[in-house]
C-alpha cells in the first residue's frame, strides 16, 4: 500500500481502509480521525443529584454494624468482629430482657 506522509496528514493512495465502502479515491487520515476527536456535548444531560466521594477503596472508614440476637453467634460476632474490622460501631439487639441486665 503506497502512502504519502507529511507533518499533519497521511494520504492513502491505493487500497481501501477497513470498513470503507466508498469510491476508490485518496482519503486523508485526518478526515477519518478528526470527527472522533471532537469533544462530546454533555450539556443536554441533567445534573446528577449525588456526588461521588473522592477516596481510595482501601481507605478505612467507620461502619455501623447491627447484630440481631445475643445467642452464641451474636456474642461471638460481638467479640471477634471489632478485632478484625477496626473502626466499627457495633450494636447487638436482643428481644429477651433476661440476657442483658442494665442495673
From TrEMBL:
Q: What is this protein called?
A: Uncharacterized protein
Tell me the superkingdom of the source: Eukaryota
Q: Name one Pfam family in it.
A: NAD_binding_8
Polar residues bias spans? 1-13
Which residue ranges does the record annotate as region Disordered?
1-24
Amino acid at each position: 500500500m503506497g502512502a504519502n506522509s507529511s507533518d499533519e496528514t497521511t494520504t492513502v493512495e491505493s487500497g481501501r481502509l477497513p470498513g470503507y465502502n466508498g469510491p476508490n479515491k485518496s482519503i486523508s487520515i485526518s478526515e477519518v480521525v478528526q470527527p472522533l476527536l471532537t469533544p462530546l456535548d454533555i450539556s443536554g444531560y441533567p445534573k446528577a443529584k449525588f456526588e461521588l466521594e473522592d477516596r481510595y477503596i482501601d481507605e478505612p472508614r467507620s461502619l455501623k454494624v447491627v447484630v440481631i440476637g445475643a445467642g452464641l453467634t451474636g456474642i461471638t460476632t460481638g467479640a471477634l468482629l471489632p478485632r478484625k474490622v477496626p473502626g466499627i460501631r457495633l450494636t447487638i439487639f436482643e428481644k429477651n430482657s433476661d440476657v442483658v441486665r442494665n442495673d
